[in-house]
Write a structure and sequence with these properties.
Arc Repressor Mutant, subunit A, Four Helix Bundle (Hemerythrin (Met), subunit A), 3 domains, homodimer, DNA-binding, 13 helices
Chain lengths: 300, 300
DNA sequence: AAAATGTTTTTTCCCGATAAAAGACATTAC
DNA sequence: GTAATGTCTTTTATCGGGAAAAAACATTTT
């Protein structure tokens, strides 16, 4: 079976949404850039759209014939990459419980369970290992270190070190740096969200990530920037399966972000440090409080 | 061809050295622990030793018949794991020159050049990517970011942050902690090396790594401990192909380590901080001075 | 009965093969 | 002559298979 064509399917679906917006499609290279795929894939998409009579395709002319129907779309689950599928499966097992520290991880078993080849699982585990949750025994199995309180503490220790430094660097950026405009835009989005927090609280995670990544980028240090991947991954999955107090939690965080943004804009190192510390402290508290000390196995 | 038996060959060679020291060999499980391999591999080793009449093997009795000769050993190059072979080849290309930032890395080409399968190369690149020197374009090639001055600065920035914190944690460890004995032992080795620095200066790298790892471990933070892998890798390869001033460099470093150790033992935070900073500063200088700013391609 | 040896099963490591996707080259249209 | 389309080549992503190594199970020895 070798390789699934999820890139094509995903791009096809996204291309369908483009159809709604215009009478005709741009050139092949342009479409490629727009969808983030190669021209080869673009041409496959166009070929199918012609076949299903969505468009009339003749060289440069790509006229839209009809609006796409729900059944024109490929099913969502066929648009995920193998890596995403494996990651989700793995994280579910890890966080849903029954995953005690010290437990062995078996590549073959995982592969069979998810229904993929061992190579993909191996590659996933190698990539995943940088998050510090698993460890390889050479020529042998992987060992699960577990999503424990110790892990959360070690993670937040580094996070705080890095973010304080990045925030200080951010505040020291020259007035004419482009980041200030980015910050303005983010502040606007925060205010918007704050005013509709009752209904839109679940949109916070995504905004949170963009905000912290902007700050981290000011460090101009790849190790700091890359470390945010660990944090983002943990937050993404952890909160996806742990919705307790989500609204309350996010409401507080939005306000802290706004204070943090104001401090950054003041460019006063003392204020930045204080606002940053305050937010990080509550983020740590939130994370820690969701990890019961005597973590027990629970059915998924 | 699937898998080379380098584990067996390497363990076999190490087992030969054991033969010199005693008249007979211990039990199979004991040998396994000693050599760090499974009993399956131990039995293969014993079988061959019997065949080449190095030992007489009858169940529990494994009597040494003769001393191993040079020709009994497997050639060194057959004892390396594929991962080591790939890493070495790759690092040679990277550091020997001709590896400009922005250059594309081609899995297939690399695999052909080294004479291994693509899977192994892919796995290596994924593992290697955490060092921050390469980056993956999804569904496409890898991009080399290059061993540049910027890289060295970003690396040392984190290193300094982490080591200062670890050193402070180290000094705060209780009097009865086992680390003080480890430190004593390391100090002894440093003094030994210092007194024979003229001839043994090339043994410093290994001591250096053990010393810094001991300190980093005091942080009790897996991210800090793991980060030392990046530093160790860079130092290992970089200095392996850049021997300028090696003796002078190491002589200074040994003295700095001794001062650093004394500061740790004083448990005075101010002294620790000062000694640590001093050593890190000169380490950074050394690394930076070996990276010419306008780095040019040079034949290997 | 504890610990070794003997035997069998499972898992890891690595390759070659193949479809998907990207990329390069050749040709045509504007 | 620039930028598109058309065609061909190369590379990546993934699988299944097979030897090496580990691990599990069964049997013997002390």
């Amino acid at each position: 079976m070798s390789k699934s064509n999820n890139v094509y399917k995903d791009a096809y679906n996204r291309c369908l949404r483009l159809l709604d917006e215009s009478r005709s499609l741009p050139s092949e290279p342009e479409l490629g850039t727009l969808l983030g795929v190669s021209r080869t894939t673009v041409r496959s998409i166009l070929a199918r759209m012609e076949e299903t009579e969505l468009i009339d395709w003749n060289k440069r002319n790509k006229t839209v014939l009809r609006a796409p129907q729900p059944e024109d779309f490929f099913p969502e689950e066929e648009t995920d990459s193998l890596a995403e599928i494996i990651e989700r499966s793995f994280m579910r097992r890890l966080l849903a419980g029954g995953a005690e520290a010290g437990m062995q991880i078996n590549e073959l078993e995982l592969a069979r369970e998810i229904g993929v080849g061992t190579t993909s699982v191996r590659e996933f585990l190698i990539r995943f290992s940088r998050f510090g949750l698993i460890e390889k025994r050479r020529n042998s199995h992987w060992v699960l270190k577990g999503f424990t309180r110790a892990f959360a503490l070690e993670l937040t220790e580094i996070r705080e070190m890095f973010e304080l430094r990045s925030a200080a660097a951010f505040a020291a950026l020259p007035e004419d740096s482009a980041v200030w405009a980015d910050l303005d835009r983010l502040e606007g989005e925060h205010r918007q969200l704050a005013s509709q927090i009752a209904t839109r609280f679940n949109e916070f995670s995504e905004l949170d990530e963009r905000f912290h990544r902007l700050i981290h980028r000011a460090s101009h240090n790849r190790f700091i920037v890359d470390f945010y991947d660990v944090i983002a991954m943990i937050f993404h999955y952890h909160y996806q399966w742990n919705k307790a107090e989500e609204r309350q939690r996010n409401e507080v965080a939005v306000q802290e972000h706004l204070a943090y943004i104001a401090a950054l804009r003041s460019r006063d190192p003392g204020k930045v440090d204080a606002a940053c510390r305050k937010h990080l402290k509550s983020a740590r508290q939130t994370l820690l409080s969701s990890i019961p000390e005597g973590r027990q196995a629970q059915p998924a």
